Amino acid sequence: MNLNKEEKEMELKKSFKAQKIALYWLLALIYVSFIGLQLGRIQAIADYNYSLHEILYVPFTIAIFVVPALLLIYIILFTKYLRKRGRKKTHLKTIVQSILIISSIVIIIFITEYQFQEVSTSGIFKVEQKLHDDGKYYLIINDKKVRVSYNEFQLIEENQQYLITFIWNKRSPYKGKLEIIEPLD
User: How many CB atoms within 10 Å of residue 109?
Assistant: First the structure.
């Protein structure tokens, strides 16, 4: 009778360990792909070495295919563990870890999805208006309120055309951020 209880306890520990390993692989892949995406957005890296810039997107490309499989494996192992465990009390440490893990994954997904909605627009635009609002500086370009620095704000003239590149998000299409501005000769 005692041996059977020890075997069950040993099997439960193995199940917990397998579930934990799957979770850590899943988290590692998600975090590495997210960091690669964020580093890939840095223009200085692309200017320095474009191959390095492209390599930074490899973990995300791998994650697109592997994360669903790892998530499925984790869910299967987790449900097996819960069935074997029965109605034992969950430790506070495990609950806190679960909350942190789930919230970090949700935050990463929201940030990534928001960034996928970004659009870069370039062209020759007329600066329709300059605005100073709550210590922030904006230009009205193509019906968009584009944020600029104080120096850029001071150097730019209204009703003049410039070569402009700005980034805006499809979720907030009337706001943007200036990337590059050059006067036309």
Answer: 12
